[in-house]
Model the fold of this input.
Amino acid sequence: MEYVRVIILAIIQALTEFLPVSSSGHLVFFQKVMGMQEANLFLDLILHLGTLLAVIIYFFRDLLNILIDGISATGELLQGQRPSDVMYRNPNLKLFIYVIIATIPAALAGVFLLKPIEATFDSFRFVGFTFLFTGLVVLLTKRFQANDGKNLNQLKFMDSVWIGIAQAVALLPGVSRSGMTISSGLFRGLDRDLAFRFSFIMSIPAVLGAFLLKLKDNWHEIHNGRVWIYLVGASVSFVLGLLVIKILSRIVIRGNFYLFAYYSFFIGILTLILSIWIK
Done:
């Protein structure tokens, strides 16, 4: 029975982590509606590790290109070539730098606004409104259908800043990280593929950092004899995560990302109705 529960949680994690429907919002929803106690924190970390590995494997070629361009750019800079020329010839290095810039707003929000953000998790009604907010943002991408937007060489500093701010807003429960960052990329004129890739690659340092910070406080859980249960959960979230990323990439590239808005509106309205009785 424990394995079944872990598999169900892994499926929910993989679906809500990547689709623009907010995993944190669904966590609050199920806890409130079903009277669930808070989940095992170490299990939650392990499930996040599974989905993080899915992102790394799916975008492995991009990450490898970033490494290659980084080595190439270092050699060119040591030869005295101009930084602007080096950056243009090594666009994946530019992607790496802008991804780091985009993680800064969320990192600052996590440090200085942690307590106010955590307080919002106790408000069921607040989550209902943030679900609706996510739906509205995602729906607006319907107006940004052109697939001839900015490529990697045309990516600007302020593009990464605004996408980073969107990721910081997504720290609130009910606000989807992928929904906000992909939408922001489209709003800034990025082509669909770049908006998708940038969103997921920028999630790697953010999720990895949060994972490592929490892991050191929960490492003792690995010694409680439930290693195989944790491995099953991580495996399910990893495999399903790869599948979900693949499906989402096709949806974004075909210009149908906005369709997820209707689910967010549904879950948001349902949450607000239930919040009349559930506090």
Remarks:
- The chain has a mean pLDDT of 86.
- Residues 2-67+96-274 form one domain.
- The longest helix spans residues 227-253.
- Residues 59 and 197 are 8 Å apart (CA to CA).
